[in-house]
Amino acid sequence: xxxxxxxxxxxxxxxLDLIHQWQEFRKKSKNKLQADYDFVKLYSTSNSHLFKIIxxxxxxxxxxxxxxxxxxxDYTKLxxxxxxxxxxxxxxxxxxxxxxxxxxxxxxxxxxxxGKATLIPADITFRRYAKxxxxxxxxxxxxxxxxxxxxxxxxxxxxxxxxxxxxxxDILVVDGHKLAFQVINPFxxxxxxxxxxxxxxxxxxxxxxxxCTFFVLFFSYTISCFVVIFRVWSCCFNxxxxxxxx
Length: 246
Description:
Radius of gyration: 27 Å
Largest sheet: 4 strands, mixed
Order of helices and strands: HHHHHHHHHEEEEHEHE
Structural class: alpha+beta
Mean pLDDT: 77
Number of helices: 11
Distance between the termini: 41 Å
Low-confidence stretches: 83-87
Strand order of the largest sheet: 5-4-1-6
Helix content: 40-55%
């Protein structure tokens, strides 16, 4: 199955919406040519949601996208030409041998610039691939060109987790806080501030839904507390990982 980035889908859907608006706009005018220019001008000055996604267009863009649809409502026909075949691959006309030679120039301590490395025919194709590789493999880029210290200084402190790769229930985030009031400890009979431990699903948190799967009340940090945590986690949620903030 071909992997399509979410951004590419948004662009394609926005193009489809724009084609619909353009066709409705043309129906109101007898002079179709003038209507096209008026629509492009109106779109370019509207600062609309579609403009923020698609950017600048021309009359030719509209006709080209309309022809690509060929009377259908299939937005996938409007996907940007340059897309990934998988999450970690880039669709390009470059051969494996060309990529191997090209990357051997870039991933080298001599740190040859992309401009110098592309002083060959069809350099724009190489530039696009180099930009994609750097954006998606920045750690390898820095390690090969600048060394381990640069990797430690420039990359490792800023590594971001990609929550889009998770499924709901894959990882639970655990965080505990002492209550602001006292309760009776059932084991000692004395008043104490218990600790409320909440379990949040990481995927739903990344989607901006703070979904608390469950919570537990503890009176002290002991081995039994963590035994309960992992038992409930493994039996009820079958998550692959658990991250604790206790």
